[in-house]
Design brief:
The protein has helices spanning 11-33, 51-57, 64-86, 91-118, 121-124, 129-140, 144-159, 164-173, 179-192, 210-232. The chain is mostly helical.
Amino acid sequence: MERKEKKGKSQEVCSLEKSISGDLQKFERLVKEENVTKTTVNLPTGVFRKAFKIREELYFVNNNTLCSNLAYHLILADFYNWLLERFDIGLTIKEMLIKETICLYGNIIEGVAKHSIANLRSIRKTIPEIPALFSMIRQIIRTKELRQRIIETINRTLYGYPGIHGSLSILVNHRIISKTLKMRILEIWSWRNKEHIFTLKDREYGKYNDELYVNVLKVWNELKRALSDAKDKGKI
């Protein structure tokens, strides 16, 4: 999801902001006073993208299971984005929410990067027998997803399954992404690795802000465009 430019708010929107905020505060007070353990406040409909729509955007991912799982996590990213855009969240909670969003996008980026190098057609052609083998697999095995899993397994066996650094280097070498994009992704990856709380050297306060969050969204959308272009050109 791309973050949209903020526009001026109408008087009606400002009025609703005030009334909803007040009602929600009153609601929370009453819930506590009455010791209510569970309530049902409906989220607005039509806010979050549907999984099938996201799968259409991720057409460069030709593994159905991976594509669906990526879509589910991007729906969660939409929810995080909605919370950050609609609620006046302060201090620690906002920072940790931004952190979780960054970690989520880091994992999504890792998934599409590793998947993409397993499907690089130029790599498959480096061994003469491989195209013929893949053609045979497609003729014998009719289930598309099983067929793709076998092909990916062969690729990993022949060429290894590098980590995020190696995967991005391969994409750069095959002119799928730029060196600049690679470095920007690795910067996000360094933030993503902070999800391992035990390894943190200092307190996580005052580190996560809107600028960092917006940058992550820009990098993800740039990677999506690069992989879509590579798919359109038959590179992956």
